[in-house]
Design goal:
about 450 residues; alpha/beta; TIM Barrel; two-stranded antiparallel ribbon; 14 helices; about 15% strand; binds phosphoenolpyruvate; binds manganese (II) ion; Phospho-2-dehydro-3-deoxyheptonate aldolase; aromatic amino acid biosynthesis; amino-acid biosynthesis
Length: about 450
C-alpha cells in the first residue's frame, strides 16, 4: 500500500508516510464547519517555527529509557484541559512550582533523579464520550478543548473554529517560553524549592509527613555542609507533553530534522495516545508510529495483553529504549488484577517499555451534589497498587501521570484538608476533569515518597 512503513525508507517515502493516517479511521476529530478556513489555518501552522527541537526530544527519550531501567522516575503533571485565559504568568508559575516541589520530595523518596514533564504548553484538545451535550432540551456539540471550541453552552461557542488551532499554537509558545524562563533562570533553585516545601509543612494538617520532611531538611543541610555546588542545582530540565489528538494540528507541527532527516513532532517533547484513540489500525497510532519523539499510550481496563503487545510492536518495532511508555489508568479497584498479567507478558514478549501510572482517569465518580470528582484516597490507592504489582513482578515503576494545578481549587475530594461534597462548590473551575490542587499535589508527593522510601 502506498505510504506503508518499510524499514529502509527514502526521504520522499518518509514524508509521504506522514500523511498515511488520512486513509485510516480517525476517531475524535472535530466536525469543522468550513474546510477552506481549516486548510488556510493548517497552511499557516505548517510554516510556524517548531515549539521544541529534535535534540530535546532525543534527550527526553534517553531520560525515559533511564526511567524504564529504574535509574530515574518520571513526574508528568498538569491540567486535564489547559485554557487560553489561564496561560498567565501567575498560573503557569504556580503549576511549575507545584511540580518542582513534588519533584524534590519524590527525589528523596525514590532516591532517584526525577524527570519533570508538564501536561502543559499544548494540552488544548479533549476526547469526549459523546459528540453532543443536552441541557434543558437544547442539544449542542460537546466541548472538545479550546483548540476546537469554547466551553460556554451557546451555539456560537460550541461551533468548532479552525482559527483556534493557531491560537493553541501561540498559547503553547507563550507557555513554553515561561517554562523555559522559570526553569533556567534561577527560580528552580533547589534551596528555594525546599523553602517552599517548609512553608507547606508549617500547616498542622500535614503533621503525619513530618518525619519525612525532617529527613529531607537534614539531607539538604548535609549537602550544604558537604560543599555541594548548589549553583549547579539552580536550573532543571522541564519537558512539555500533551495528548496527540487533533491529527491535522499534530501533522502540521511534524517536521523533518535537518540533522538526521527523521520526522519529529515539534509541538511537544512527549506525545501520548489517549485511551479512546489507541486503535491498532487507527490514524493516531499510525501518525505517532512515524515520529521519533518518545511517546506514550494510555491503557484502560479493557486493554488486553494482546492489544498491548501489538501496540508495542507497532510503535516501537526496533525496541528502542525510552521510545514507548505505557500509562495504565484502570482505577484503584482494578489495578491489582489488571497489572500483573500485563507486566508478565509484556516483559516476556516485548521490548522494554517505561511503565507509568495515571491514577486519575480510572477513579472518576459523580459526587452526591453532582460534581465530576475523584477521591484522594482512591488516587493514592491506585498508586500503591501500581508499586505493589511492579514489586511482585520484579519490573520497574517508571513514573506518575497526574492531573493537577498550582491553584487552590476544590475539585477532588479528601486529602488532609478534607474537601467534602459541599466543599467542592467553593472553587470548582476545571472545564473537563477534576485536578488535585496545590496542597493535595504536595500531599500526594509526600505520601508517595513514604511508599517508596524504605
Ligand atoms: C486525559 O488524559 O485527560 C484523558 C482523556 O485520558 P484517557 O485517554 O486516559 O481517558
Ligand atoms: Mn483528563
Amino acid at each position: 500500500m502506498k505510504g506503508e512503513q518499510v524499514n529502509e525508507q527514502s526521504p520522499q517515502s518518509v514524508i509521504e508516510g506522514l500523511d498515511f493516517w488520512r486513509q485510516l479511521p480517525a476517531p475524535q476529530q472535530p466536525s469543522w464547519p468550513d474546510k477552506d478556513v481549516l486548510d488556510h489555518v493548517l497552511a499557516e501552522l505548517a510554516v510556524t517555527p517548531p515549539l521544541v527541537f529534535a535534540g530535546e526530544a532525543d534527550a527526553l527519550r534517553a531520560r525515559m529509557a533511564a526511567a524504564s531501567r529504574g535509574e530515574a522516575f518520571v513526574l508528568q503533571g498538569g491540567d486535564c484541559a489547559e485554557t487560553f485565559a489561564d496561560a498567565t504568568a501567575d498560573r503557569i508559575r504556580s503549576k511549575i512550582m507545584t511540580i518542582l516541589q513534588m519533584a524534590v520530595v519524590l527525589t528523596y523518596g525514590a532516591a532517584l533523579p526525577i524527570v519533570k514533564m508538564g501536561r502543559m504548553a499544548g494540552q488544548y484538545a479533549k476526547p469526549r464520550s459523546s459528540d453532543t451535550e443536552v441541557r434543558d432540551g437544547v442539544e449542542l456539540p460537546t466541548f472538545r478543548g479550546e483548540a476546537v471550541n469554547a466551553h460556554a453552552f451557546t451555539p456560537e461557542a460550541r461551533t468548532p473554529d479552525p482559527w483556534r488551532l493557531l491560537q493553541a499554537y501561540h498559547s503553547s509558545a507563550a507557555t513554553l517560553n515561561l517554562i523555559r524562563a522559570f526553569t533556567m533562570g534561577g527560580f528552580a533553585d533547589l534551596r528555594r524549592v525546599h523553602e517552599w516545601n517548609k512553608g507547606f509543612m508549617s500547616n498542622p494538617a500535614y503533621k503525619r509527613y513530618e518525619t519525612i520532611a525532617q529527613e529531607i531538611d537534614g539531607a539538604i543541610r548535609f549537602m550544604s555542609a558537604a560543599g555541594v555546588d548548589f549553583e549547579a542545582l539552580k536550573t532543571v530540565d522541564f519537558y512539555s507533553s500533551h495528548e496527540a489528538l487533533l491529527l491535522d494540528y499534530e501533522r502540521a507541527l511534524t517536521r523533518i530534522d535537518s540533522r538526521t532527516g527523521q520526522p519529529y513532532n515539534c509541538s511537544a517533547h512527549f506525545l501520548w495516545i489517549g485511551e479512546r484513540t489507541r486503535q491498532l489500525d487507527g490514524a493516531h497510532v499510525d501518525l505517532l508510529s512515524r515520529v521519533r519523539n518518545p511517546i506514550g499510550v494510555k491503557l484502560g481496563p479493557s486493554t488486553s495483553v494482546d492489544d498491548a503487545l501489538r501496540l508495542a510492536e507497532k510503535l516501537n518495532p526496533d525496541g528502542e529504549p525510552g521510545r514507548l511508555t505505557f500509562i495504565t489508568r484502570v482505577g484503584a479497584s482494578k489495578i491489582r488484577e489488571f497489572l500483573p498479567p500485563l507486566l508478565a507478558e509484556v516483559t516476556k514478549n516485548a521490548a522494554p517499555v517505561t511503565w507509568m501510572c495515571d491514577p486519575m482517569h480510572g477513579n472518576t465518580i459523580t459526587s452526591g451534589s453532582g460534581y465530576k470528582t475523584r477521591r484522594f484516597s482512591d488516587i493514592l490507592d491506585e498508586v500503591r497498587g501500581f508499586f505493589d504489582a511492579h514489586d511482585e513482578a520484579g519490573t520497574v515503576p517508571g513514573g506518575l501521570h497526574i492531573e493537577l494545578t498550582g491553584d487552590d481549587v476544590t475539585e477532588c475530594l479528601g486529602g488532609s484538608e478534607e474537601i467534602d461534597d459541599v466543599g467542592l462548590a467553593r472553587r470548582y473551575e476545571t472545564l473537563v476533569d477534576p485536578r488535585l490542587n496545590h496542597q493535595q499535589s504536595l500531599e500526594m508527593a509526600f505520601a508517595v515518597a513514604e511508599m517508596l522510601h524504605t
